[in-house]
C-alpha cells in the first residue's frame, strides 16, 4: 500500500496532494523568466513571453522580442516588438493576445503572432500613462482594466465591444493602491482595491468601502489579492502574513490562515481541478510556493466543450484533423464542417501570393453554398488583409444581401451598400436599422447635394430619413423638400413653423408668406389662398389687440368675429365678416349665438328683423331655449315656417298646439313625434286627440 | 336578450399566460439593475403597466419612487434611474437632458432605458448624438399583447394608425410579426391564415419568416386557434367612422374606455366622486348589455333592477336560519350586482342626456343617408351647418370624411367650400389636417373622371358584372378610389328591410348600426371564412384596391380539431371598434364559433380623426 500513497503529501487535515510531471516543456529559454512579461491563456492555451519589455534602445539586438509558445512549449511565433513599451500582456477568451502599452494603446495578436487590430483606452490614459493593467474574463468576454499614473481606473468589460468606463475617484488616494483586482459582480465589472488598512469597491458610479467578515485584527495593509476564475471567491494576503479566503460577495469567510511570512508574495492565484470540490490558493514568493486549501464546497465547472476543442484545432491550423473529428462525431454541418471550412477560407484569403480571382474561385469551389458559411465574414477577413477587390468578389457569393451591407460600408462602398440594404428590404422589414445605418454613413460621407440625389432614387430610404428628420433635424427636412421640388410638403413645413417655431407675428407672417409661395408653386390655389387669408387675419388680430386689448391672436375667423360681438364691437365684426367673406348662414348662426350668450334679447330681436333669416327661425327658438328663455323663444316660434313648426312648438313645450299643427298637416311622422312628447300628466287629452286623428286618417 | 353563447361554442384559449409572461420579463429586467431605483414611466404605458404589475410588485423589486416621463425636470435623488418608455425620439431627448444635466452637475448615476415593446435604431442613434449612449444601458420589454378581456388582446399602440397609414412608417410591422409569433408559439400553430391589406401582407410575411427561423418549436402541437384573419384598417374606414350605438361602443364614444377601464364622472356615479370601472366579461351586468343596441339597454336594466329588488324582498318571510344563509351566501353577490346596476343605469342616463336629443337623431339620420347614398345634397348641407355652428371640430371632420369615402371623394366645389368653412370655424392650422387626410385617403377630391360615377353605377345595373368591372377599370384614375357604393352593393351591406328592424332580436350584423349597415370589415371576414379563401370575391378585392394584397395561407397538416377550427383570431392593423367586436361576437353566436380580437388599439371615429389632426401645441 505504501507505494500508492508515498508521493502524496498532506494538505491541511483532510486533504492530500501529489506532484508529478505531465510533460516537459519543449522550449529552450535562454533568459530568465524574471525579465519577461509572461501570459498564459486560460484552459491550457498558449503562452506568450515578452523579453525586455522596457528597453527603449533602438538597437535591434536589444529590442523586445515577443514569443508565443503552445502550452507544452512548442514555439508558435517570434516577432520583434517595434511598438511602444508594454506594461501588461494577457490572453482573451478567444485566444487573442492583448498587449497593453504604456500609452494606453492595446495591440491585439492572434496565436501565430499575426497582428489583428489595436485600440486605445482613451485620452485620460494616454495623458497619465498606464501604471498597471489587467486583462480579465467575464461571462461576456474579456476585458482590460487600467490604473493610470493619476491613480484613476479605466476599464472596458469587453474588448470586442469596446465601451470605456472611467471609474470615479477614490477619496483620499494619494499613491498607487497597495494591490487591486477586477471583480465581476451582478454582471458588472468592478475594481477592488486596497489603500492602507481599507478596501474599496469601485463601479462606474460610486466608490464604496468594503469590510471582509471575520478579518483578523491588526492588518495595516493588504499586499496581494486574488479573485477566482469564476469571480465567486476572493483571497487577500495581509502585511501580517495572514490569508483570508471567502466569497467575492464579501458576505462569508470560508477559511483563514496565518503563514507568518511577511514578505509580499510575487503572485497569488486560485487553483482547483475539474470536478474537485476543493479549492485552494497558491501563493508564490521568490523561492517558495505555498498552497492554502479550504473546506469542500460544491461548485460547478464548465468543461471544455467539443466546440471549444474544434476552435483550438482551427486556431492551430489543423483543418483536416478538425474536419475528420466533425465527421466522426457526426456534428451537424453548421456547427461542424461548414464552420471549419469557413475558418479555412479566412486563412486562405491571407495567402498574398495567390491572385484575387484564384482565391475567390478556390473558396467558392470548396464551400459552394454549404449551409452556415458566411461569405461576408470571409470577405471581411479579406478586407482586413487589405484585399478590397477580393472582398467584393467574395461578397458576390453572399446570398443574403443584408449581410453584405456592413462590410460594404466599411469599405466605403456606401451607395452599393444602400441598394443592398434596400434589396434586403423584404426580408429585413424589421425596423429598418440596416437602411438607417447606411443612410447615416452616406450622410457623413457625401456632401449634401449628392446625399439627397442618392436618396431621391431610393423612395423607401427617403421616407425613412424624412421620419427621422421630422423629429431630429427640421432644417434638413426643409432642404430635402427643396431638393425634391416637393412644394406641397414645403408649404406644410412653413405652415407648421408659423405656429410652432415662430413666436412673433412678423416671423409668423413671414413663414406663412413662404408657405403661400410654395403652395403657389405646387399649384395648390386653395392652400395658397387659405394661407394668404391667414396672413391677413394675423395682421388684423395684431391690430385688434393693440386697439381694443384682449386676446385675438390665434383665434379662428369665426371666433374673432364672435369675440368682437361679445365685446360690443358690432361694426368691426361686420367689417371682418365682409373682409373674410363669411357666408350669410354662418354669420347668422354666429350672431345669434353670441347675442344669446350676451342675453341681449333686444339686439337679437332687432337682428332677427334686419332681413329674412337665411337659417330660418327654428335656430332662434333652439338657442333661446338653451338660454332658458322661453318667453323670447315663443316669439320666434311663431315665425318658424310650417315645415318646422311642430318642432318649434315642441321645443317651447306647447304640446297641444304642436298636436293641432301636426293633425292639420296630416303628417304621420310629425304626429308620432308629438306623441313621443306626450309625457306630462296633462298631455293625456292631446294624445287622445292625435290617436283619433290617426284612426280617422287610416279609415280614409 | 343577454346573448348567451351557444352550448356547442368552443372554449377560448387562456390568455392570462400573456400577462404572467410580461410580468416575469419585466421583473427580470428590473432586477438587472440591482438595488433601489426610481422608475420613470411614459404616460401612455401607465395603464397597460398597471394591468401587468401593480405598484406593490414594483416595490418588491426595489422600485422606490415612480415618476411620469413629462416635460418637467425630475427631482429624483436616487442613484439608479430606470426609464420605461415607448421607442420615441422625444423620450430619448428627455432622458438625454436628464443625463446631461447630471453630467454638468458632476453627478454619476446608473441609467437604464427599457423600451417597450422594442427599441428602434433611431432611438439609439439619438442617444448617441446626444452623447450619452455609453452612459445608459438599453433593454427591451417585449410586452406587446395585453389581454383586455377573455376575447380581446390589445397591443396598446394607438400611434400605429398614424405612423403606418399616414407617415408610411413600417417599423411597427416587426412588432406585429413578433406578437403573432408569440401567439403561435403559445397557442399555435395556426392552420389557416387569411389577410387583406398591404400591412397585413407584410406582417404575415415577416411573421412566417420568424416561424421558419425558429421552426420545430410548435410542430406536433395541436392548434388551439383554427383561423387567423389579418385586416388593414384602411380596407374599411367607413365602419370606424360611424357613430356607435351598441352599448360598449357608445360608452367608448361618450366616456372613452382606456385600456379596458372607464372613468365614470360624478354625473354617472351620482356622488361627488369619479369612479374607475373595469369593463369586461367579469362584470356580470356589463357582459349582458355590452353587445346590445342601446335602445334595449335601459329597459333591460330596469327589468334587472326589479328582479334584484324581488331577490332582496325575499328576506321578508325568512326565519333566522334562512336569513343567516341569505346574508352569508347571497347578499354579497346581490350587493355587488346592485352596485354595478346603479353604475350602468347612471351611465345610460348620462348617455341618453347627450345622445337621444334631437341633434343626435339628426346626426344618425345623416350618417344613414350617407351610407345608403341618398339625399347627398341634404347631407352636405347638414355637414356645412355642423361646421358653421362649431358643434365639434372632430365630429365635423368625421362627417366630411364619411361623405368623402362613401362618395369616392367630394366634388371639387364642395371640397373647396367645406374646407374653407372648416378653416373659418376651427382655425387655419387645419390646412395641415386636410393635407394629412388627403394623404391617408380619408378626405379627397373627386378626380375629373370620377364624376362619371353616377353613369357608371347605372351602367353596372344594365350590363353583366364582368363588363361593369371593365368599365370601372377604364374610369378609375391613378388615385385610389374607395368604391364604397359598389362594394356595398356587391356585399349587400345595406340590408333591405320590410317593416321595422327588430333590434331586440337582431337578424344580422347590421344591428350594431340600428339595422342600417353591415360593417364592411366584418362582412369581408364572414365571407372569407365561409368560402375558406377569396374565391369568388375577386371583384370585391379589386374594388378595395387590394388585388395584390389579399392572401390565403393554408397548411397541409390537418391536426386541427373541429373544436379549434371554430376559434378565429381576427387581427386589426390600425385599430378596431367595439361595434366591430360586437358584430363579430354576434356572428360567432350565429355560426357556433368564437372570435378572438387582436388589435393594435381599440379605436373609434374620434380617435381616428384626432390621429390625423394637427393641433397647436
How far is the first residue's CA from the last residue's CA of chain A? Answer: 132 Å
Describe the biggest sheet of chain B?
7 strands, mixed
Taking the alpha carbons of the first and last residues of chain B, their distance comes to: 47 Å
Structural class from helices and strands of chain B?
alpha/beta
Rg value of chain A: 44 Å
What is the overall number of helices of chain A? 27
Strand tally of chain A: 25
Oligomer: heterodimer
Tell how many strands the DSSP assignment of chain B holds: 14
Using only C-alpha atoms, the radius of gyration of chain B works out to 26 Å
| Sequence stretches where pLDDT stays below 50 over 5 or more residues of chain A | 296-303, 426-431
C-alpha geometry of chain A: elongated
Quickly count the helices of chain B. 26
- Helical content of chain A stands at 40-55%
Keywords (chain B): Acetylation, Cytoplasmic vesicle, Endosome, Lysosome, Membrane, Phosphoprotein, Protein transport, Transport
GO molecular function (chain B): protein-containing complex binding
InterPro entries (chain B): Sec-1-like_dom1, Sec-1-like_dom3a, Sec1-like, Sec1-like_dom2, Sec1-like_sf, VPS33_dom3b
Subcellular location (chain B): Cytoplasmic vesicle, Clathrin-coated vesicle; Early endosome; Late endosome membrane; Lysosome membrane
Amino acid at each position: 500500500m505504501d507505494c500508492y500513497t508515498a508521493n502524496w503529501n498532506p494538505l491541511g487535515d483532510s486533504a492530500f496532494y501529489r506532484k508529478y510531471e505531465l510533460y516537459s516543456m519543449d522550449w529552450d529559454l535562454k533568459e530568465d523568466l524574471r525579465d519577461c512579461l509572461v501570459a498564459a491563456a486560460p484552459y491550457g492555451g498558449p503562452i506568450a513571453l515578452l523579453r525586455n519589455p522596457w528597453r527603449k534602445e533602438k538597437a535591434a539586438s536589444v529590442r523586445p522580442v515577443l514569443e508565443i509558445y503552445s502550452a507544452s512549449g512548442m514555439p508558435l511565433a517570434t516577432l520583434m516588438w517595434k511598438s511602444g513599451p508594454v506594461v501588461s500582456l494577457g490572453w482573451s477568451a478567444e485566444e487573442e493576445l492583448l498587449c497593453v502599452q504604456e500609452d494606453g494603446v492595446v495591440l491585439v495578436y492572434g496565436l501565430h503572432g499575426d497582428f489583428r487590430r489595436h485600440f486605445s483606452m482613451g485620452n485620460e490614459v494616454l495623458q497619465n500613462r498606464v501604471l498597471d493593467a489587467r486583462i480579465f474574463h467575464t461571462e461576456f468576454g474579456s476585458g482590460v482594466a487600467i490604473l493610470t499614473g493619476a491613480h484613476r481606473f479605466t476599464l472596458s468589460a469587453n474588448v470586442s465591444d469596446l465601451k470605456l468606463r472611467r471609474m470615479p475617484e477614490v477619496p483620499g488616494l494619494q499613491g498607487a493602491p497597495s494591490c487591486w483586482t477586477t471583480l465581476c459582480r451582478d454582471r458588472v465589472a468592478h475594481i477592488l482595491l486596497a489603500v492602507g488598512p481599507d478596501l474599496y469597491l469601485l463601479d462606474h458610479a460610486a466608490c464604496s468601502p468594503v469590510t471582509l467578515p471575520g478579518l483578523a485584527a491588526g492588518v495595516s495593509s493588504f499586499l496581494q489579492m486574488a479573485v477566482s476564475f469564476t469571480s465567486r471567491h476572493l483571497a487577500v494576503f495581509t502585511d501580517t502574513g495572514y490569508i483570508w479566503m471567502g466569497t467575492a460577495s464579501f458576505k462569508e469567510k470560508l477559511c483563514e490562515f496565518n503563514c507568518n511570512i511577511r514578505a509580499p508574495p510575487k503572485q497569488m492565484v486560485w487553483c482547483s481541478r475539474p470536478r474537485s470540490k476543493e479549492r485552494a490558493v497558491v501563493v508564490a514568493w521568490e523561492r517558495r510556493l505555498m498552497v492554502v486549501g479550504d473546506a469542500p464546497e460544491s461548485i460547478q465547472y464548465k468543461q471544455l466543450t467539443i466546440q471549444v476543442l474544434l476552435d483550438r484545432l482551427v486556431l492551430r491550423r489543423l483543418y483536416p484533423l478538425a474536419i475528420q473529428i466533425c465527421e466522426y462525431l457526426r456534428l451537424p454541418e453548421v456547427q461542424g464542417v461548414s464552420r471549419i471550412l469557413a475558418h479555412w477560407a479566412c486563412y486562405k484569403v491571407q495567402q498574398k501570393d495567390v491572385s484575387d480571382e484564384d482565391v475567390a474561385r478556390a473558396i467558392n469551389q470548396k464551400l459552394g453554398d454549404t449551409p452556415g458559411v458566411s461569405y461576408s465574414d470571409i470577405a471581411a477577413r479579406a478586407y482586413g488583409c487589405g484585399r478590397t477587390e477580393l472582398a467584393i468578389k467574395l461578397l458576390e457569393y453572399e446570398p443574403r444581401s443584408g449581410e453584405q451591407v456592413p462590410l460594404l460600408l466599411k469599405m466605403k462602398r456606401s451607395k452599393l451598400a444602400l441598394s443592398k440594404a434596400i434589396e434586403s428590404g423584404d426580408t429585413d422589414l424589421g425596423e429598418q436599422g440596416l437602411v438607417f445605418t447606411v443612410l447615416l454613413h452616406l450622410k457623413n460621407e457625401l456632401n449634401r447635394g449628392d446625399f439627397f440625389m442618392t436618396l431621391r432614387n431610393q423612395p423607401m430610404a427617403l421616407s425613412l430619413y424624412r421620419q427621422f428628420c421630422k423629429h431630429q433635424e427640421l432644417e434638413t427636412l426643409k432642404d430635402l423638400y427643396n431638393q425634391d421640388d416637393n412644394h406641397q410638403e414645403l408649404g406644410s413645413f412653413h405652415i407648421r413653423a408659423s405656429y410652432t417655431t415662430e413666436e412673433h407675428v412678423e416671423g409668423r407672417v413671414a413663414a406663412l408668406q413662404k408657405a403661400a409661395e410654395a403652395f403657389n408653386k405646387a399649384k395648390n390655389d386653395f392652400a395658397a389662398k387659405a394661407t394668404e387669408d391667414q396672413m391677413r387675419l394675423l395682421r388684423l388680430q395684431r391690430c385688434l389687440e393693440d386697439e381694443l386689448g384682449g386676446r385675438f391672436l390665434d383665434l379662428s375667423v369665426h371666433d374673432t368675429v364672435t369675440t368682437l360681438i361679445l365685446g360690443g364691437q358690432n361694426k368691426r365684426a361686420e367689417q371682418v365678416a365682409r373682409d373674410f367673406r363669411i357666408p350669410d348662414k354662418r354669420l347668422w348662426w354666429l350672431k345669434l349665438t353670441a347675442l344669446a350668450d350676451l342675453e341681449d334679447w333686444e339686439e337679437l330681436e332687432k337682428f332677427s328683423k334686419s332681413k329674412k333669416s337665411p337659417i330660418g327661425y327654428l335656430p332662434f327658438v333652439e338657442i333661446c331655449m338653451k338660454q332658458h328663455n322661453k318667453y323670447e323663444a315663443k316669439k320666434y316660434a311663431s315665425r318658424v315656417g310650417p315645415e318646422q313648426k311642430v318642432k318649434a312648438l315642441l321645443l317651447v313645450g306647447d304640446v297641444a298646439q304642436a298636436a293641432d299643427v301636426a293633425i292639420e298637416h296630416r303628417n304621420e311622422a310629425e304626429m308620432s313625434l308629438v306623441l313621443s312628447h306626450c309625457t306630462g300628466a296633462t298631455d293625456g287629452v292631446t294624445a287622445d286627440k292625435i290617436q283619433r286623428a290617426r284612426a280617422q286618417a287610416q279609415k280614409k | 336578450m343577454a346573448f348567451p353563447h351557444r352550448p356547442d361554442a368552443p372554449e377560448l384559449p387562456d390568455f392570462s399566460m400573456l400577462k404572467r409572461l410580461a410580468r416575469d420579463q419585466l421583473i427580470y429586467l428590473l432586477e438587472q439593475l440591482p438595488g433601489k431605483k426610481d422608475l420613470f414611466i411614459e404616460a401612455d404605458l401607465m395603464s397597460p403597466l398597471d394591468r401587468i404589475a401593480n405598484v406593490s410588485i414594483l416595490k418588491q423589486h426595489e422600485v422606490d419612487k415612480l415618476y411620469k416621463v413629462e416635460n418637467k425636470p425630475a427631482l429624483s435623488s436616487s442613484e439608479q434611474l430606470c426609464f420605461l418608455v415607448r421607442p420615441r425620439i422625444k423620450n430619448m431627448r428627455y432622458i438625454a437632458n436628464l443625463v446631461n444635466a447630471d453630467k454638468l452637475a458632476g453627478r454619476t448615476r446608473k441609467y437604464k432605458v427599457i423600451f417597450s415593446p422594442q427599441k428602434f435604431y433611431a432611438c439609439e442613434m439619438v442617444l448617441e448624438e446626444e452623447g450619452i449612449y455609453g452612459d445608459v444601458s438599453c433593454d427591451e420589454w417585449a410586452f406587446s399583447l395585453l389581454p383586455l378581456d377573455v376575447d380581446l388582446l390589445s397591443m396598446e399602440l394607438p400611434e400605429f394608425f398614424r405612423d403606418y397609414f399616414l407617415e408610411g412608417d413600417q417599423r411597427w410591422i416587426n412588432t406585429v410579426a413578433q406578437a403573432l409569433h408569440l401567439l403561435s408559439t403559445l397557442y399555435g400553430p395556426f392552420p389557416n391564415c387569411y389577410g387583406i391589406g398591404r400591412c397585413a401582407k407584410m406582417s404575415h410575411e415577416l411573421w412566417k419568416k420568424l416561424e421558419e427561423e425558429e421552426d420545430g418549436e410548435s410542430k406536433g402541437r395541436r392548434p388551439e386557434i383554427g383561423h387567423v384573419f389579418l385586416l388593414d384598417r384602411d380596407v374599411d374606414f367607413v365602419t370606424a367612422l360611424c357613430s356607435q350605438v351598441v352599448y360598449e361602443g357608445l360608452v367608448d364614444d361618450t366616456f372613452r374606455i382606456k385600456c379596458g377601464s372607464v372613468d365614470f364622472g360624478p354625473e354617472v356615479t351620482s356622488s361627488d366622486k369619479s369612479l374607475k370601472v373595469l369593463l369586461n366579461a367579469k362584470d356580470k351586468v356589463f357582459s349582458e348589455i355590452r353587445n346590445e343596441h342601446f335602445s334595449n339597454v335601459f329597459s333591460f336594466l330596469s327589468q334587472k333592477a326589479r328582479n334584484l329588488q324581488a331577490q332582496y324582498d325575499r328576506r321578508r318571510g325568512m326565519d333566522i336560519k334562512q336569513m343567516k344563509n341569505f346574508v352569508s351566501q347571497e347578499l354579497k353577490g346581490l350587493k355587488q350586482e346592485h352596485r354595478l346596476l346603479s353604475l350602468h343605469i347612471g351611465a345610460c342616463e348620462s348617455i341618453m342626456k347627450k345622445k337621444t336629443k334631437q341633434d343626435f337623431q339628426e346626426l344618425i339620420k345623416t350618417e344613414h343617408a350617407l351610407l345608403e347614398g341618398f339625399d347627398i345634397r341634404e347631407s352636405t348641407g347638414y355637414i356645412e351647418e355642423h361646421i358653421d355652428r362649431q358643434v365639434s371640430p372632430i365630429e365635423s371632420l368625421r362627417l366630411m370624411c364619411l361623405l368623402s369615402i362613401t362618395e369616392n371623394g367630394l366634388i371639387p366645389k364642395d371640397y373647396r367650400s367645406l374646407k374653407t368653412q372648416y378653416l373659418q370655424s376651427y382655425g387655419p392650422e387645419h390646412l395641415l389636417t386636410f393635407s394629412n387626410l388627403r394623404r391617408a385617403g380619408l378626405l379627397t377630391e373627386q378626380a375629373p373622371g370620377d364624376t362619371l360615377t353616377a353613369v357608371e353605377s347605372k351602367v353596372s345595373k344594365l350590363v353583366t358584372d364582368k363588363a361593369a368591372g371593365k368599365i370601372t377599370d377604364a374610369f378609375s384614375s391613378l388615385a385610389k378610389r374607395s368604391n364604397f357604393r359598389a362594394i356595398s352593393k356587391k356585399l349587400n351591406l345595406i340590408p333591405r328591410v320590410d317593416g321595422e328592424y327588430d333590434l331586440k332580436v337582431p337578424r344580422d350584423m347590421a344591428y350594431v348600426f340600428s339595422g342600417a349597415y353591415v360593417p364592411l370589415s366584418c362582412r369581408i371576414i364572414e365571407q372569407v371564412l365561409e368560402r375558406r379563401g377569396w374565391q369568388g370575391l375577386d371583384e370585391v378585392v379589386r374594388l378595395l384596391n387590394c388585388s395584390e394584397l389579399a392572401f390565403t395561407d393554408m397548411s397541409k397538416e390537418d391536426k386541427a380539431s373541429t373544436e379549434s377550427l371554430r376559434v378565429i383570431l381576427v387581427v386589426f392593423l390600425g385599430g378596431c371598434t367595439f361595434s366591430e367586436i360586437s358584430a363579430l361576437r354576434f356572428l360567432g353566436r350565429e355560426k357556433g364559433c368564437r372570435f378572438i380580437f387582436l388589435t393594435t388599439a381599440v379605436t373609434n371615429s374620434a380617435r381616428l380623426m384626432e390621429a390625423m389632426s394637427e393641433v397647436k401645441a
